Amino acid sequence: MGPHTPRSAPEGDLAQVAAEARAGMVRAIEASGGWDADPGWRTAFEQVPRHLFVPTYWIGVGSGHERLWGGDPDPARRTRWMRGAYADAPLATRLRDGELLSSSSQPSLMARMLAELRIGQEDRVLEIGAGTGYNAALLAHRVGDERVTTVDLDPDITESARAHLRAAGHAPTVVTGDGARGCPERAPFDRIMATCTLPSVPRAWLAQCTPGALVLAPLATGLIRLTVTGPEEAEGRFLHTSAYFVPLRGAARRRTQAPYPGGLPRRALHSELFQFLLALTAGVLDPREAVSLWQREGRPARERYGVSVRGRHTWSWLDEPDGPYAWPLPDA
Q: 3-state DSSP call for residue 271?
């Protein structure tokens, strides 16, 4: 057996496997720069046991999925499950007819999102999309159970999230409801973090925020961070990182992206930044116009794009909110 060959472990050794795997996950996040904006998150990832939140998950095998779970009678498969639970990778935790319903996000991306939220010790935080409960546990570790609320539309998801959180020794408020409506009974919030992709910015969230609150959410294939300046006003830019999440259920209808017309440059079609522009302007900007803009503006990075909310109007933009490049977003 080579020095890097994973070994299977009997039940009594799983705790050691977990400790080694968790340390490896922390090193991977560190190397990725995941918490560079706030190194204080390292302690949460070191101390919150991710495997308690993913007792079962699926990995892609060929055209299907293989289930790994902590109760597997085969010691070698239990070891695979434990090591996989701490991989710096997203894990599919709920499937229905082969469709992904819920997942545990890639830890380094979670760390980056948490760090970019700039959370203070006294901040009240609303998470949209409870998932496994792992992200809520990380938040609760940082600011305390009483300051964290997590919402999900699916009662099966919230029930399992509560169970996972109890197993890990945390008890934030877990609410079954439409995340697009926020959670008015627990407002006001200083930070709102979504772990599901939005079609637009829900107005209800802004009304539940304190002045100066931050909202961080996946939109298109990026992460938008908004500063809330009033119950109907917010503005901010995208972070540089890409982000792909399960869509928010219960939100406004998503715009459909038209099929690509022929003749688009291969360089554009294979560019993640061009795909981001197409997703952000789907149904509004013709793909050929998008190519012209993208080339003319020097293939702009995500940080040059932003989103504004003013009263009933929500729009995305390039460089400046009131500049020449602006595209309306759906009402939400």
A: coil
On the question of pLDDT at 8 being above 90, the answer is no
**Is 301 exposed, middle or buried (CB count within 10 Å of its CB: 0-12, 13-18, 19+)?**
exposed
**Measured between alpha carbons, how far is 130 from 160 in angstroms, rounded to an integer?**
10
Residue at 136: amino acid letter = A
Strands 305-310, 313-318: parallel, antiparallel or unpaired by DSSP?
Answer: antiparallel
Q: How far is CA 199 from the centre of its chain?
A: 14
DSSP string, 144-212: -GGGEEEEES-HHHHHHHHHHHHHTT---EEEES-GGG--GGG--EEEEEESSBBSS--HHHHHTEEEE
Tokens of 77: 């498969």
Catalytic pick among 32, 102, 200, 271: 102
Sheet with 64-69: list strands edge to edge.
64-69, 56-61, 91-96, 99-104
H-run or E-run covering 137: helix 134-143
Render pLDDT for 72-124 as a digit per residue (tens, 0 to 9).
Answer: 999 999 999 999 999 999 999 988 777 777 789 999 999 999 999 999 999 99
Residue 79 to residue 85: CA distance in whole angstroms = 10
**Residue 200 is among the residues annotated as catalytic for this protein:** no
